[in-house]
Design a protein that fits this description.
Bound molecules: pyridoxal-5'-phosphate
CATH architecture of one domain: Alpha-Beta Barrel
Number of strands: 23
Structural class: alpha/beta
CATH class of one domain: Alpha Beta
Strand content: 15-25%
Mean pLDDT: 92
Largest sheet: 10 strands, mixed
Distance between the termini: 45 Å
């Protein structure tokens, strides 16, 4: 029997409270102190984990609406980012003090994780304060990072470490060498032997003593989704034999003192800390051997991979991790220290490139629900009976499967529940084949479907009362769950949900003092059937539907539904840049929110999302041409009397306004 996790029965256990919602959605598990629920039943963000400084997300969304900024909107919390960086700094500082580690620590931010200027500019500023640095993995990223490090601390004066990974051509390396001359603390990491030759050549030509790093292909396996980032078959790095050849090569050119850094990267979102421990152990041994051979080593860069507990389960599961930042730091410091102490090698400066862990927490997407679709639990018996009578009057017989379904529905008891469902399934299948053969009318088919869904609902209700669901009905809750249509594109805003089944926590941002009485899956507004979310975070189970509140239609045709907003959390890492323009749905608005000393929130910046014009231009449309062509068509239609002048004017206006407008739906 599968246990049925149903919302608590409000009647038995007293009124539903915000705390019940917090528990149901696992907010403290994945929120890690950054997310909470307030007395109004609204979701809050506490950027510094200080309950006295809360941002009420519903209030923010209402405030933005008044300013004409419509959902979907990405909320960025600079203070969360700031807090998170300090948390990482402190974890390493504490571990180093405790273990008497003398080499120091720096975290460099690989900008590929989120290259948005606003984020990187803040990051560069914080890096100067915290002794952190930046990492570039391609030519455009290198140019961005060189620019960012200039504005961060005055031209070339701050000494912030800049690590260059990824494949490099001659021009890339020449730029790096000249940037060294400019005064940047820049370290190209050799991924291929030929890059080393280029570094030596350009360094000599410009008379520069560069800092050089080497990435090693470790024998320790990587793990998780990106396990091929490491190991001897990895795309990057030198084999140990090539590392030795590099040492000889540098010695020959009297540059062995320039070999300053050893690097590895074992994968992203490392869910099991043991994988990292093995790799760090191996890399440190190599480091010590090379140091003894006379390399001028002073830095050990263990790459990225510090994971994020997306589902709050703290387990070695794909969307989770089985360690905290503190444990990560303590393990890394301990491993490196013990290997170095044994080899009597000076403790290196430890560098991590923990991109995901730095930025994931700082952004939240809020989207509105556009409407729902559901299988009703009430089959509308009166209507069915009316339809049956009409069927008789028209000279036809009521098909047997419909009579059977009606009978089953009316005679269901706690005792015959399993049997009833089997009968119903059989009758439904018969009804569908009669219909396909042309022996059943549309009203009768509709009656059969409604009865079948109603029987399913009854069965679920009865099982819920007993607290267990017979195994054969395990898929029933999903089958009968509602569909909530949400105003967003999965491909633009959370592409990893589609690409690698990454889970992100999702929770209503208001009405949390109210029991959610529905269960549903979420669909986006792309016309791609993959644009849906049907897996949700949970500490224990593989959860396929989310508890949601009833949303009611607003009175009046086409007026939509009463506002209902869902927040998607931990979107700061990778999602923005991996997002694409599926169906030409563009970037969402992004809004920077901060909290002042008094605990009031402020809007620091509104970055408008793409307009329709912008996404069309991206795919090479000529907007002026299109407008002209539409004008001509409208003009002709008016002339021929197919449109009135007023209609023509309206259509032209809709067209022009639409081009300048948001790519998402606005009321
Ligand atoms: C992608 C990447 C990172 C960042 O990894 P996270 O999992 O985000 O910490 C760090 N270093 C290198 C070389 C990378 O390619």
């Amino acid at each position: 029997m599968a246990s049925l996790s149903t919302p608590k029965n409000a009647f038995l256990a007293g009124r539903w409270t915000s705390e019940d919602s917090a528990k149901l959605y696992g907010i403290t598990d994945w929120g890690k102190g950054y997310v909470g629920v307030n007395a109004h039943g609204n979701l809050t963000v506490m950027p510094s984990k200080d309950p006295a400084k809360q941002v009420d997300l519903f209030e923010v969304i209402e405030g933005l609406k008044e300013r004409g900024v419509h959902t979907p909107v990405l909320l960025r919390f600079n203070d969360v980012l700031s807090h998170r960086l300090r948390e990482i700094r402190k974890a390493f500082d504490d571990s180093m003090t405790e273990q008497q580690y003398t080499g120091g620590y720096s975290c460099v931010y690989p900008i590929k994780v989120n290259q948005q200027r606003h984020i990187c500019e803040q990051m560069a500023k914080e890096c100067v304060e915290l002794g952190f640095g930046l990492e570039a993995g391609s030519k455009p990223e290198l140019l961005a990072v060189l620019g960012l490090s200039a504005t961060a601390g005055g031209p070339g004066v701050n000494g912030m470490p800049i690590i260059c990974n990824g494949f490099k051509d001659s021009e890339f390396i020449e730029t790096v060498i000249l940037a060294t001359k400019l005064g940047r603390n820049i370290i190209p990491v050799v991924e291929k032997f030929s890059e080393l030759e280029l570094i030596v050549r350009h360094a000599k030509a410009y008379g520069v003593r560069p800092k050089i790093g080497i990435r090693v292909k470790l024998s320790s396996k990587g793990a998780g989704r990106w396990e091929s980032s490491a190991g001897v078959r990895s795309k990057f790095g030198l084999f140990v034999s090539e590392v030795l050849a590099a040492v000889e090569y540098l010695k020959k050119h009297e540059m062995l003192d320039c070999l300053n850094l050893m690097h590895c990267h074992v994968g992203s979102q490392l869910f099991d800390i043991r994988v990292l421990k093995n790799a760090v152990n191996e890399l440190t041994h190599i480091y010590c051997e090379l140091a003894r051979m006379g390399a001028g080593l002073s830095m050990l860069d263990i790459g990225g991979g510090m994971g994020v507990d997306y589902d709050g389960s703290q387990s070695a599961w794909h969307s989770s991790i089985n360690y905290s930042v503190q444990e990560y730091a303590a393990d890394v410091v301990y491993r490196i220290k013990s290997v170095c102490d044994n080899a009597k090698v000076k403790h290196p400066m430890i560098i991590t490139e923990s991109g995901r862990a730095m930025v994931a927490y700082s952004s939240v997407l809020v989207m509105d629900v556009l409407g729902t679709s559901r299988f009703e639990s009430d089959p509308q018996l009166e209507k069915i009976k009316g339809d049956m009578e009409a069927e008789g009057k028209a000279g036809g017989d009521v098909p047997q499967p419909v009579l059977d379904l009606l009978d089953t529905y009316q005679n269901m008891t706690d005792r015959n529940i399993v049997e009833a469902y089997h009968d119903a399934t059989q009758a439904r299948d018969e009804a569908m084949s009669l219909f396909s053969l042309g022996y059943m009318t549309l009203p009768m088919r509709s009656a059969a479907e409604r009865l079948f869904w109603a029987i399913g609902h009854k069965l679920l209700e009865r099982s819920a009362k007993r607290g267990e669901l017979p195994d054969e009905f395990e898929s029933l809750p999903e089958l009968l769950s509602d569909i909530y249509f949400c105003n967003f594109s999965l491909f633009q805003s959370m592409p990893d949900s589609w690409a690698i089944d990454q889970l992100f926590p999702i929770c209503p941002i208001h009405r949390l003092g109210e029991e959610p009485t529905r269960r549903g899956i979420l669909c986006d507004i792309t016309c791609d059937s993959d644009g849906k979310i049907d897996h949700f975070v949970d500490k224990r189970i593989d959860k396929k539907t989310l508890e949601l509140h009833e949303v009611r239609d607003l009175p009046g045709v086409g007026k939509g539904v009463e506002p209902y907003y869902l927040g998607v959390f931990l979107l700061g890492a990778y999602q923005e840049i991996l997002g694409d323009l599926h169906n030409l749905l563009g970037d969402t608005h992004a809004v920077h929110i901060s909290v002042d000393e008094a605990g009031r929130w402020h809007i620091d910046e509104v970055i408008e999302g793409d307009t329709v014009e912008e996404v069309l231009q991206y795919v090479q449309y000529d907007i002026a041409d299109m407008k002209r062509a539409m004008r001509l068509d409208i003009e002709a239609a008016c002339r021929q009397g197919r449109l009135t002048l007023a209609e023509g004017k309206s259509l032209a206006k809709f067209y022009d306004d639409g081009l300048e407008g948001y790519t998402y739906l606005e009321e």
